[in-house]
């Protein structure tokens, strides 16, 4: 006959400290809030480390395309550019880049299937392409010209990233997240050293495998 001391009890199931999330979303970008433009896209993957039920840290890589329009006075033309010889009226265009965010998240009501969270961190931009339509004055006439830059501009820790969101568990290991966010400039980016702000909404599918505690 087995006694209580010889009966093996099942281990307690806890969540892994590591998670992975697949992210997709869209945003609107602006420079000094003077113009609006069509929405850009975000898609990528994030890895997370969970210190406890409330605090976690996340990083990863996102591909993003941002569309924006810039007033001439807010576009800092490099001195060695042909544009330096003209008065710039307006610039519209887009950039493709890889974004590498690093942020911490605090989750409220972590034991519930539905919870609210706040996040704060910084992002680095690794630009792969910039395409601009320049409107400038030539002999008193407003003319336009397109330029394409397959750039390698890198802007480390150049963006402050703030977000708040809602999380819902849809299984033992899977959750969906809806996350409005703001990406605010800490410095200029791109060919024109513009101060680019973005406001968007990301949707994530997060996987955090359960593990047994002995």
How would you describe the overall organization of this protein?
With 214 residues, the protein is mainly β. It has a single domain (15-213), classed as Porin (Beta Barrel). It contains no helices and 11 strands. The chain is elongated, with a radius of gyration of 23 Å. The chain starts with 11 loop residues before the first strand and ends with a strand. The relative contact order is 0.23.
Q: How would you summarize what this structure contains?
A:
The protein is an all-beta fold and 214 residues long. Helix content is 0%, strand content 68%.
Write the layout of secondary structure elements.
Blueprint: E1 12-15, E2 18-31, E3 40-50, E4 55-71, E5 87-107, E6 114-138, E7 141-149, E8 154-169, E9 174-185, E10 196-207, E11 210-213
Antiparallel strand pairs: 1-11, 2-3, 2-10, 3-4, 4-5, 5-6, 6-7, 6-8, 8-9, 9-10
Radius of gyration (Å): 23 Å
| Main sheet strand line-up | 2-3-4-5-6-8-9-10
Mean pLDDT: 91
- Total helices: the number is 0
Question: What features would you highlight for this structure?
Answer:
single chain; 214 residues; mainly beta; Porin; 8-stranded antiparallel beta barrel; two-stranded antiparallel ribbon; 11 strands
């Amino acid at each position: 006959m087995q006694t209580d001391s010889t009966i093996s009890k099942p281990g307690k199931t806890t969540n892994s400290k590591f998670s992975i999330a697949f992210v997709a979303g869209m945003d609107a970008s602006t420079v000094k809030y003077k113009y609006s433009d069509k929405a850009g896209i975000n898609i990528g993957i994030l890895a997370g480390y969970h210190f406890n039920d409330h605090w976690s840290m996340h990083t990863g890589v996102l591909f993003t395309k941002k569309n924006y329009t810039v007033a001439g006075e807010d576009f800092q033309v490099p001195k060695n550019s042909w544009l330096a010889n003209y008065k710039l009226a307006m610039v519209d265009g887009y950039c493709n880049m890889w974004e590498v965010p690093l942020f911490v998240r605090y989750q409220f009501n972590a034991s519930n299937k539905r919870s609210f969270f706040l996040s704060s961190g910084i992002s680095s931009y690794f630009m792969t392409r910039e395409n601009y339509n320049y409107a400038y004055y030539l002999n008193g006439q407003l003319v336009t010209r397109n330029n394409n830059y397959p750039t390698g501009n890198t802007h480390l820790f150049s963006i402050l990233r703030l977000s708040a969101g809602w999380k819902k568990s849809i299984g033992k290991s899977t959750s969906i997240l809806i996350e409005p966010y703001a990406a605010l400039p800490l410095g200029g980016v791109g060919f024109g050293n513009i101060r680019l702000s973005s406001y968007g909404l990301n949707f994530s599918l997060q996987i955090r495998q359960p593990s047994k505690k002995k």
